[in-house]
Records
---
Amino acid sequence: MLSIKNLHASVEGKEILKGINLEIKAGEVHAIMGPNGSGKSTLSQVLAGNDAFEVTSGEVTLNGENLLEKETEERAREGVFLAFQYPVEIPGVSNLQFMRTAVNAMRHHKGEPEMNAAEFMKLAREVSKQVDLDPAFLKRGVNEGFSGGEKKRNEIMQALLLQPKLAILDETDSGLDIDALKVVSDGVNALRAQDRAILMVTHYQRLLDHIVPDYVHVLADGKIVKSGGRELALELEERGYGWLGIKEDATEASSAN
Amino acid sequence: MKPAPTLLPTAFLHPAGQALPEPLLALRKQRGAALVDMPLPTRKTENWKYSSKHLKLTDEMAISLPIDGKAGSALAVPGYKVVFINGVMIPEASEYPDLNNILIQRFGDLSDAEASELAGQLDSTLDKNTVQLAGLNSARFEDGLVIRLKAGAVLDQPLFIIHEITAGASGSAFPRIFVDAGTNSQITLVEEYISSGQDAVMVNTVTEFNLAEGANVTSIRLCMDGENVQHVGATGVRQQRSSRFESHCVGFGGPLRRHDLQVSLEGEGAECKLNGVVVTQGTQHYDNHTNIEHVAAHCDSEETYRNIATDKSHAVFNGRIHIHQDAQKSNANMNNNNLLLSTGAEIDTKPELEIYADDVKCAHGATIGQLDEESLFYLVSRGIGRREANVLLTMAFINELVAQIPLEVVRDTVQVRLNHFFDQSFQGI
């Protein structure tokens, strides 16, 4: 489904991704782990189409189509979803209005009729229950005054509403207590499907206790230095990154994360 | 040698329309005499420095617009309605109740005694020295509406005053409104300024509110005049003890839009809330000057104005708060937030606080910014189109103020105009 070949990307002239190669098939869950500053978030942002990052070489295809030449919104409509590490607060736009606009943009793209306010409200209430988010949050400004955990659950709620082909979860576990982690993980597990690929970016392996990946990759200094199965995450947990010859906290690039 | 000041073109000194009671004609004449040597504001006039160059008064424009008998656009409003065409009230197009405790009268219908009382009250709410062109209205009004609410009177529905310009030629209109809200009375007044026609016109308005103890007045002012209309308007408010005045001004730009809003809190416990939204595009210009006088102690004022400017347009906000020496325990809060949608647009904002009492809370804040790139990325990353994302974020900037307008029909009218603005502003996106 997703094919990344020799991807290089930089921000403000500084190269962050230095040749990423990755293949993800439909139905698979991949985890990318690595120390701070290794380029994990950059990879997520580049895939979603944030033009603050410049792709200098390489190619990315989604179901055979060149992803890099598409605008952010086109990527989203064709099934790319990024759960943000730091979801943006947008006071003045209600969460409900935001989500309905997004869902209708997607439906419009697929040639389906738009959902009216009442239809969407019904759907949104159901999905909010699934991520244990009080429906009162729908009326609030997008992420406005949400706690860290509420923001993350709001991201998963959007993924459940938009039903992407490729869900990229950027540090979705960070800042969650164990109960919230469980809720978020249940949401992600509900997303697992034969026709969907999931790419999880995480610093810690504890998320992987709840969402068991098919593959684990270690990213260091802009490259994937090791790939393996689930057991690789456990080994990293036990031994840290040092045995792979990786310095923890490559602070020189951490500002990009 | 100091250059001679520019004066009003002399044609402006000749009022038309004599169908007014004698005391009002006498007042006009007296105010007209003061205009003869009144210098027009220039860029050196502090409160007109950004706007004087947009004030274009010619002899041709001084002519009172003809009253052509048109009834204006038929606007359905959920309430009472008074229609002014080219500055003159059209009774046939107006619908308002005939009540004992609420008198709604056009100036021409007043008895000499009533007109004399009114003449003593007109101009009492505005500072002549800072609202220079209000005097022009006083010298030139041809018609007007006076609303007197007796003690305890409550107008059960909002009163819409539709000011329409149906010009077929250049000229001016000088509509005048005076509201005398008695003790514990209550009214919601909507002033809507609209035009049909493309001629160069000046609309020079004055609206005054006199609030007695405990009176509660909500004023909504929609400045939606046509493309070629210079609008120079003033609103004056005096408030006695425990009265409450709430104002919602929404304006769209033009060659010149100027609104002076002056509120004087003269009795303890009086409270005002002033909201404003301004949207400008093209080469439009909009200038809001507000002045809140905290004269008495224990009064509250809350002011929030937001400007959105795009293309090469220019918006100005000047907010003055003057806390007098005896106005202890005043609570004043002023905010002005500005959104620039293009690099060619300009917004000038200036808070002016003058505080002479030592036990007050007085805060102000001003911001100028652009649409947030991170927010835009977040929205488009969910499949929302760029144009729609821009609209959502721009609306987000003013939603809070639009939502506070207490009448749905007005919110809808504003939204239609905003949508039109978005269509033009974001068409290339």
Note: Residues 250-257 of chain A have pLDDT under 50 and may be disordered.
---
Amino acid sequence: MHIVVCAKQVPNPEAAFSMFRIDEEAKRMVPAPGLQLVMSPFDEQAVEAALRIREHHADARTTVLTLGPDSARNAIKHGLAMGADEGVLLCDAAFEDADSYTTAHALVAAIRKLGRCDLVLTGRQAADWDAGVVGAGVGELLGLPVITFAKDVHVEDTTVRIERVLDDGTEIMEAAMPALVTVSNELGAARTPNLRETMRAARKPVTVWKAADLGLAADEVGAAGARRVVERLFVPVKNNRCEFIAGSPEEQAAGLAQRLRAAKLI
Amino acid sequence: MPKREIEGDWVMGWPDRKRPVLVAGKDSQGRVINGRAPITELEGLITPTDAYYVVNQLEVPEPIHPDDWILTIGGEVERPIELSLKDLQKLPGRTVRAVTECAGNDAGFFDYLMKGGGKPSRINQQDMQKRAAQREQNAVPSTEEISNESTTTCAMSAGEFTGVPLAEVLKKAGLKAGAVSVRMEGFDRGQPDLAVQYRSVGRSDFKLVDPGVINYEKGLPVEKALHPDTLLAWSMNGEYLLHVHGAPVRAIVPGWSGNWWVKWLQKIEVLKHMPECYYQKHYFVYGNAPDDPNKEMITAMGVRCIIVDPLDEDSPLERGSHKIRGLAWSGMGAITRVEVSLDEGKSWREAHLEEPRERWLWVRWSYLWEANEPGHYRVMARATDETGRVQPQIPWNYQRKHFDGIVPADVTIV
């Protein structure tokens, strides 16, 4: 069984909010110096899901697939240190400024090039843009059944069985493999790489493919092939208004209740 | 119980051990404003700079470019002078290796040894981020909140500092006869964080003196100021000081607790009297109660000895040979002896002291314990320094400063 985990490197979401800056003119985020880049935590949980499957299926092989700059190699290394078997980095100037569509398009070309793939796992969304589109896009372009927001992933023979998170509970779903599953944080904490696995990971292969290696023309990937247009990128302004309610404690309580009701908060 | 699995990380592109990191609190700009050293995870004598503990009484100031920095020396001197960093570096330099320890380090053990109850931990430390947030909001915790908080541990580190003896600078300016103290002022400025002081006392149901906005300052007695190892340092652990550690120049006052090691120096003033600095008249004092009329400023640390292995958290241990390891240091001189007790202090056995044994640096010690009998053990260790002081030296005081008691490691052998 071959499991491909699509993982993205993102600015550390644990970093202070003030470390993030927006260049409104260029419509892009400006990374602060020293801001750590990490594997998106939802993707880390997708790797975890793959490794849990492997614990019950000795023949399972896990590939971590990433599209990004050369620094994204570290995200792959993290996945390999967790226990994945091999990594593929899609790194090419032509991939820069990709949108969800061109990212999915490149990932699909890579998955096809990898050969047989029984299960594709992704995080429910990347922790930087939070769009949550690429995973479903990869499934659509590959023509696979897509199940989102998994908190538990089990493989039985040729079927993948998912416990899926809903607003008010969970549901159990099954799909014939190959299939694509997006993994949610309810899966639980991802394992921490230990030194032995990290050192072993140094010997695991990381393959780097450019657009041409995937048979993709420069104008169908990255910014050139993008279908999404960013109209405006900005940090919303938060306005705080403070009102002191005068009167006796009873009047203050009544006034507070009225205002909360007017604001439809109660 | 087996030791925790060693974590791995990618360091400079190579697979390696995950590096011990500072347990830090950051301000809303993501800047570290406090931190505790991962003392139980470190090997050797020198604490890596990025794992060195951080404590600040006032707000961390905006950095000053080294080329724009000027140190003013005035007061009771023949020739008031101003020195740039380059001027300072032309004077005869000196390197000192010393322990820096926050005066309030391990304060919670005072209560633990006197009254029992919850034992502070050196690995499950305080929530530094919560403290950083409280600091930004100037929030004063209630007595109840304070009593539910864990107290400070791991506010100690050791480093190598290079600079120039303060005595050389005073010599250049010409120290007048009759000088009593040397006031050192930093360019960190702000209103004292009252929550820190309430925490040190363990309650907040009394009124503190609020001096308003001040610069951090300490008045060093002239004898200590003239000690050749008291430095104005620009370098730490082989590189220029980091801003968070007091760049461009900070004071190094070996043997005395961290509050004397004034960071971000900008002014030195020689006085004929002891100045009434807030941080030696109202805080960082020995006394019996907040209203004690006979408070005394704290100076040299006591005699310290801590066990870093095994920790309570390592228990239970399997029968067999175990190496008990730790660190010992003193505010008055080199450590000459460490003893270990396995029977709650009834008998003491000599531990091995590793070289080097420097005057201001801590020493690593060890004792090979053949633990063949199952049961619960209170492993204790105590140190003696070259002046003959045996711990503990410092009695309980209401701000709980300079704890140097004997803290047992509670271990079960199975």
Note: The mean pLDDT of chain B is 93.
